[in-house]
TrEMBL record:
This is Probable alcohol dehydrogenase AdhA. Keywords: Metal-binding, NAD, Oxidoreductase, Zinc. One of its GO terms (cellular component) is cytoplasm. It is an enzyme of class 1 (oxidoreductase). SUPFAM superfamilies: GroES-like, NAD(P)-binding Rossmann-fold domains. It holds the Pfam family ADH_N. Signal peptide: none annotated. Its EC number is 1.1.1.1. One of its GO terms (molecular function) is zinc ion binding. PROSITE patterns: ADH_ZINC. It catalyses: a secondary alcohol + NAD(+) = a ketone + NADH + H(+); a primary alcohol + NAD(+) = an aldehyde + NADH + H(+). It comes from Pedococcus cremeus. Belongs to the zinc-containing alcohol dehydrogenase family.
Length: 334
């Protein structure tokens, strides 16, 4: 089967991704084999290719927003049948026994494993996943629409929860890529006033179309004090700006798995008056199930740009440049 694998991580100009042939995987006990139809292109894939996330295995196949069809099941796997449409997301294993798993916070499990990092992902024609970590997908979404829901959407949803937006409150969104454009739709539908701060004109136009109350540059102050903010852009220097934009008692949530260094904070200017700064670490399966149901109920409109599998490196370059409207998606199989 054809796959893209990360050889030696480095700048995209050095072509760390290689299109190669690998043997089709077989499902182990408790796993399902999925014929990949589409796979979303996530900024985490970029971090893996460039080495911001140190590879955990050689020649890893990225991709953790996978939509496909079950074609075979391993011993003891009975949750899905051949022909079922399923989604494969970032989180693919937790121990189930540690204090984090037992308390409903499996996203903090120290023995967690991830698709496209610890195991091969969806930049491939076939992929395997433990059936307990696969998702049934709402019929309301096409394959291409469903793909970004599986990471961009789920992580955005958890970020929104972590940001603690009060009812009818003001939310600032810094950066407006795949995750942010879905999160904004949820927040607006729930009654928040959303202010988008981002650099790309295409992203700004999409934010206006989706109903943002204001759209401006990420390094400008929003027009009103914010109750909450989510920093999606992996730029640590935006964190102090977001904190300054908060009203008293507000919360800034940092949504990325990787971020450049955050500058020194001034206590009085950035944190006083009970402001909160927090991070977001992966998600639980409950987050995923809740978000997918919510996305269908609210009628979210994922904006996608499709690329053939052969152009995965080009799609990743467009994600890096920040010049996409919404999410990039690879078309892999029919």
């Amino acid at each position: 089967m054809r796959v893209w694998a990360v050889g030696r991580p480095g700048p995209l100009a050095e072509r760390p991704l290689r299109l190669v042939e690998l043997q089709r995987p077989s499902p182990a006990a408790g796993e399902v084999l999925v014929r990949v139809r589409v796979c979303g292109v996530c900024r985490t894939d970029l971090h893996l290719a460039e080495g911001d996330l140190p590879p955990r295995r050689p020649d890893t196949v990225p991709g953790h927003e996978v939509v496909g069809e079950v074609v075979a099941t391993g011993a003891g796997a009975h949750r899905f049948s051949p022909g079922d449409r399923v989604g494969i997301a970032w989180l693919r294993h937790t121990c189930g026994t540690c204090r984090w798993c037992r308390s409903g916070r499996e996203n903090l499990c120290e023995r967690s494993r991830y698709t496209g990092w610890d195991a091969d992902g969806g930049y491939a024609e076939f992929a395997v996943v433990p059936e307990a970590f696969a998702y049934r997908l709402p019929d309301a979404f096409t394959d291409e629409q469903a793909a970004p829901l599986l990471c961009a959407g789920i992580i955005g949803y958890r970020s929104l929860l972590r940001a603690r937006v009060p009812a009818g409150g003001t939310l600032g969104i810094y950066g407006f890529g795949a995750s942010a454009h879905l999160t904004a739709q949820v927040a607006i539908a729930q009654g928040a006033e959303v202010h988008v701060l981002t650099r790309g004109e295409g992203a700004r136009q999409l934010a206006r179309e989706l109903g943002a109350a204001s759209v401006g540059d990420a390094r400008e102050a929003p027009p009103v004090p914010l109750d909450s903010a989510i920093v999606f852009a992996p730029a640590g220097d935006l964190v102090p700006l977001a904190l300054e934009a908060l009203d008293a008692g507000g919360t800034v949530a940092c949504a990325g798995i990787h971020m450049s260094d955050v500058p020194t904070l001034d206590y009085q200017r950035h944190l006083f008056r009970e402001k909160t700064l927090c991070s977001v670490t992966s998600n639980t399966r409950r987050d995923g199930e809740e978000f997918l149901a919510l996305a269908a109920r609210l009628g979210l409109r994922p904006s996608t740009t499709a690329y053939p599998l052969e152009r995965a490196d080009e799609a990743l370059a467009h994600v890096a440049a920040g010049d996409l409207r919404g999410a990039a998606v690879l078309r892999v199989g029919s």
